[in-house]
Amino acid sequence: MSPTLGWYGLGSMGLGMASNLQKHLQSQNLSALHYSNRTLSRGNSLKELGAIPEDDFESVVKKADIIFTMISDDAVLDEIISKATSVDSVTGKIFVDTSTVHPDTAASASAKLAQHGAVFISSPVFGASAVAAAGKLIFVMAGPANALEIARPYIIDVMGRSIISMGEDVRKSSLLKISGNIIVISLMQTLSETHVFAERTGLGTAQIEQFISDMFGPVLESYSKRITTGAYAPPRGTPPGFAARLASKDTGHALAIAKEHNVRLGSVEMALGRLERAREYAGEELDSSAMYGIARMEAGMSFWSENSRQE
């Protein structure tokens, strides 16, 4: 018999991922997805697709054989792993965490679950919420080989377009995700400064963005558009593509690990400083590209562009 699947965490990333998973299960006439979230009503659209709501995470664990999670930070992962191990029996269950956490947090989760006969897969993903909704994420997976094979059919062409295998050491997948974030945050930093330069010199941003597209392709163009469309500061009530507070958390992990290994990440340090200033200035409803607003202010312009929300 096919395993029963569970899901916990329905933020801007998790809802799109869980929806794609439920659609797949339904298309294959498989058991419906069991889900929960701190605010359960967040899953109403998932319920309309046929998924089954549960009152809490423990109930999801009891009902499911494979439990996917997409949560906000390390503390929440620690919390739900403790809840999982409080369930009468989790022997043989597979937990797949798709969040970005510190490698030590992933290793701790794996060890705690192993003590209770369960398996942990560390599987952070690359891609913002629009990519999650499209089912085109890149999964970075580490854990026991047999568990990875069991989980794979629910990922490729369902929630993701590819899997980067990192072996059995769950720390490695977290490290690769954090390394990738160093590149992403540095690119966003460079794009922010380039657009401000173009605005201040009178060049304008349209031709710069065309150059970015022609030279570097659609991925970098999509990062640029988060700036030029004003998505760096979306309207109140509109979730950002990737929240600034989560980017700050991920960037903090990168800097902490770099410090441990005597590595300097100058562009990341500057990006984090700008992100934190943006959050302090404009609140938490900001995208990770909100460093652009601070770069504007540093150049004597308003934090808000003509396409962003105005406050």
TrEMBL record:
UniProt domain 6-phosphogluconate dehydrogenase NADP-binding: residue ranges: 5-167
Keyword entries, A-Z: NAD, Oxidoreductase
InterPro entries (UniProt xref): 6-PGluconate_DH-like_C_sf, 6PGD_dom2, 6PGDH_NADP-bd, HIBADH-like_NADP-bd, HIBADH-related, HIBADH-related_NP60_sf, NAD(P)-bd_dom_sf
Active site: K177
Chain ranges of the 3-hydroxyisobutyrate dehydrogenase-like NAD-binding domain: 175-293
Alphabetical list of Gene3D superfamilies matching this protein: N-(1-d-carboxylethyl)-l-norvaline Dehydrogenase, domain 2, NAD(P)-binding Rossmann-like Domain
Pfam families: NAD_binding_11 (PF14833), NAD_binding_2 (PF03446)
One Gene Ontology molecular-function label: oxidoreductase activity
Family the UniProt entry places it in: Belongs to the HIBADH-related family. NP60 subfamily.
Protein name, entry field: 6-phosphogluconate dehydrogenase NADP-binding domain-containing protein
Organism: Aspergillus wentii DTO 134E9
Record lineage: Eukaryota, Fungi, Dikarya, Ascomycota, Pezizomycotina
